[in-house]
Design goal:
Layout: E1 10-21, E2 24-35, E3 39-44, H1 50-57, E4 63-70, E5 73-74, H2 80-85, E6 88-91, H3 103-110, H4 122-131, H5 133-137, H6 148-160, E7 166-170, H7 178-192, E8 197-201, H8 205-211, E9 214-219, E10 222-228, H9 229-233, H10 236-243
Parallel strand pairs: 3-8, 3-9, 6-7, 7-8
Antiparallel strand pairs: 1-2, 1-4, 4-5, 9-10
Helix pairs in contact: 3-6
Length: 247
């Protein structure tokens, strides 16, 4: 069930991570290794602990036990801004964009090394516009006026406006029309070619199987399966057992 990775190939590692939110014990000893340069899907039923895992990695919720390491260095006790400075970006399920600000100003806020919009790396911006043409079209428009799919594009674009070593993304296809999901799949395929490591939470199994290199499945706050995404995609019985899917 578990693939063995050389430790040097692991960018992010969670060892026996527990998270409490108030009186609730959400993560019950999560063990998870994210291979460098791969897109890892984190799957599971609603309430399994997937979003809590991402938020704990980012320090938005503090692990109450266990260790989180990024490129071999402990980050468990770091504050969220310090974790971000390590080269980790987070795209939350609610997208986290600023609706009153323009698309340009949303991008500028994410481009920490650019004092103004003209200082954003032009070559990288052109690449992002190639992925998400609507962002160039609505560059000066308030982000709150974008469609749901365009807001999701902006949320992902903010995460990649500067090179990141790891991107955590929570349900990017949620609520999107099929054409917008196809666009998002194409964008992630191109992003994978840049050797960016991605940990992606998703409920849409068709989306997941088209993009994932490796997969981890959560249930009741624990990782219950690890392996190749292709293996899970080909095994309907395993899907039904782990995810309750009948495809």
């Amino acid at each position: 069930m578990n693939a063995t990775n050389d430790q040097s190939d692991i960018l992010l590692q969670l060892d026996d991570v527990h998270t409490h939110i108030g009186a609730y014990h959400i993560l019950h000893g999560v063990d998870l290794a994210i291979p460098r340069g791969q897109l890892t899907m984190l799957l599971g039923r609603n309430g399994a602990g997937k979003t809590t895992t991402l938020r704990t990695i980012m320090g938005l919720w503090q692990a109450s036990q266990g260790r989180i390491s990024f490129d071999g260095q402990p980050i468990t006790a770091l504050a969220t801004p310090d974790i971000a400075r390590c080269g980790i970006a987070y795209v939350p399920e609610n997208m986290g964009i600023f609706g009153d600000l323009s698309v340009r100003d949303n991008m500028l806020l994410a481009a920490r090394n650019a004092p103004n919009a003209d200082a954003i790396d032009g070559k990288r911006l052109a690449w992002i516009f190639g992925l998400f043409p609507a962002l160039e079209k609505f560059w000066l428009h308030p982000a709150g006026k974008l469609s749901g799919g365009q807001k999701q594009m902006l949320a992902v674009a903010r995460a990649i406006v500067e090179p990141r070593r790891l991107i955590l993304i929570d349900e990017p296809s949620k609520g999107l029309a099929p054409a917008m999901i196809a666009n998002m799949i194409s964008a992630f395929r191109e992003l994978k070619q840049t050797d960016t490591t991605i940990l992606l939470v998703e409920q849409n199994f068709n989306f997941a199987k088209q993009l994932g290199d490796s997969v981890a499945v959560m249930d009741n706050g624990r990782i219950v399966h690890r392996g190749a995404m292709a293996e899970l995609a080909e095994d309907a019985g395993m899907q039904a057992r782990l995810l309750g899917l009948s495809l």
